[in-house]
Amino acid sequence: MTPASPLCYSADQIHRMLPHGYPFVLLDGVEDVVPGVSGTGIKNITISDPVFNGHFPGRAIYPGVLLIEISGHTCGIVQQADETPEEGSPEAAGGAPRRIGVLAGVRRFSFHHVITPGDVVRFRVRRRAVLAEMFEYAVRVEVGSRLAAEGTVAIAMQAEAPI
Amino acid sequence: MPSQPQLDAATRRFELNTSLRSLLLSGLDLPDDPEHVDFDEPLFGRGLELDSLDTLEIVSILEEEFGVLVSDEDRTIFGSINKLADVIEAEQQ
Fold it and tell me: Which one, A80, A85, B73, B81, has least CB within 10 Å?
């Protein structure tokens, strides 16, 4: 992955783009981004992740609910990439508040294989529908050539509220 | 008495409505028996009680199954199965 590439985002770049903080900075990278259309999120599963303290003691299985969360993050990055003004453009100079994607809906998510430490998980997202500020993405969660989970995620783009 | 072309058009429209109703009920995970959903029944509000997320699913179905693209200005088409079918027919002509 080349952080400088406009179609790939490093973990540091993702951290700056998403509003989440520890322990919800979950993506290690996003690649193959076609802004507003598709992209692939990458998550390296490691036994040092504190979630494995409880899920489950003595049998580490990455939680399905976090797979959905990471799917939403990947969709948010792909959609945000479509809105980020180019450096030096009037929009960038205007300092308009940035917009972020918030999880609006989850439909028909199914889980086919457990994900465990050592897995490199890819979240392949592709936009299915758009209406106003709502965007629906089809998601395939893969480990190698194996389909681990799939479903659809809807996000709503909105101005980031000051904390 | 209706002419044969009129009867053919009515048959095609009934088949379109029936197909669309099946796609919506399965795509939106609605438990209704298809026969109980009238083609003019409101999709939102007191009809099938759909919400904005369901609208996105309908947009997907229209594009993937019928090649119809919906813009932000077309909100009135979500009124009923018949209104959706009107848009599909217009697109196919």
Answer: B73
